[in-house]
Amino acid sequence: MKPVKEGYRVAVMGASSLLGKELVSVLEQGKFPVSRLLTFEAEEDEPELPIIDLSAASAATVEDGQISEGELDFAFLSAPLRQLPAFLSSWQQQESAARCLVIDVVGEGLGAGAGSDSPRGATGTEDLVGIPFLDRRFPMAGVHWAAARIHVSPHPAVIVISSLLLRLAARFPLKTAVAQVFSSASESGSRGVEELQKQTVNILSFQKIPHQVFGAQLAFNLLSRLGRSGTGEMAALESRLRRQLRQYLGERVPRPALRLLQVPVFYSVGVSLYVETAEPVTTEAATAALAGERIKVRRSIHDAPTQVEVTGSSDILVDSISIDAEHPNGLWLWAVADNLHLAAINAVELAASLREQVRA
């Protein structure tokens, strides 16, 4: 892949979604060389975003129907498959001849290995799950990057859990792990954020609350599963997290037991992780093991990090580690991250990593 003089031609599918808007924002910051950024709306009832041309030398206007796969270098998928533009659907049917690299940020699974339990890249035809800042330190054997055209930027909860487990496992043998993921309303897009806001206002004004998205009252509440009238997205997200953890972690660490909970928070994700080591580990040693890129561990003298606090940051904030009172080998970790920003940053970093590998 060779970029034009000013940079790469990039498309963001689902640019009017919350995740799509965050992707556009990150790309506009200029850390990834873009000559033309094409954006396509995610939902029919939302206004289409304009073509954003980042190259002063390129002033041509391109309409959706005129775009073909051959005119793009990268495509970021931030909307469900049913909302794909026609040219990308056509691209799927001729994958072997495709030159455009697709970064799947919604985890729908586009490749031959979608839904497979096999480690990533085992056959060279499966979707590859990438977390560049972890891959640099913990490369996985048998990954065939050059053979793949579809790459998955995993859910931010997967990034958080993988970061904690891989760094601890590099220093201490791990026996078991249990993760609880606290999902915010933004996982259901703008509809989820709007419904939580309306529920909160209506409850305080003693009015009937809407529940088309969550199927139950989420405001001032916590849900282990959505109500009958909900969209069912919570079960799909939990399945996606399990699949991506299997694909990315492989056999490098114990596969964590996982539970997803819906919390009345607008943005960000929280993870409560219990890890049992083969031998007792001090909190100081565990804290030192986690130190590194993107992770910041709080000391006990400071306030615990919250999902509200981390909004707008690409860091993973971890509270001071504690040892379970009844299990001396057990460690408790609480971590939070901005789900939208971390997902967008990782997707762009994945594209940059692929660009370097293709050029090499």
Question: What would your notes on this structure say?
Answer:
With 360 residues, this protein is of the alpha/beta class. It has 2 domains: 8-155 and 343-359, NAD(P)-binding Rossmann-like Domain (Rossmann fold, 3-Layer(aba) Sandwich); 159-339, 2-Layer Sandwich (Dihydrodipicolinate Reductase, domain 2), CATH 3.30.360. The chain has helices at 18-28, 86-93, 132-135, 156-169, 189-204, 233-249, 283-290, 339-359; strands at residues 8-13, 34-40, 74-77, 101-104, 128-129, 150-152, 174-183, 257-262, 269-277, 295-297, 316-318, 322-323, 330-337. Strands 7, 8, 9, 10, 11, 12 and 13 form a 7-stranded mixed beta sheet that branches. A 6-stranded parallel beta sheet has the order 2-1-3-4-6-5. It is globular, with a radius of gyration of 21 Å.
Helix content: 25-40%
β-strand amount: 15-25%
The H/E string reads EHEEHEEHEHEHHEEHEEEEH
* Average pLDDT over all residues: 82
Number of strands: 13
Number of domains: 2
CATH homologous superfamily label of the largest domain: Dihydrodipicolinate Reductase, domain 2
* Assembly state of the chains shown: single chain
Largest sheet: 7 strands, mixed
CATH fold name of the largest domain: Dihydrodipicolinate Reductase, domain 2
- What is the gyration radius calculated from CA atoms? 21 Å
Give the overall form: globular
Q: SS-based structural class?
A: alpha/beta
Uncertain regions spanning at least 5 consecutive residues: 44-66, 112-125
CATH first level of the largest domain: which class? Alpha Beta
Query: Treating each run of at least 4 consecutive H or I residues as one helix, how many helices?
Result: 8
Terminal CA distance: 10 Å
How does CATH name the architecture of the largest domain? 2-Layer Sandwich
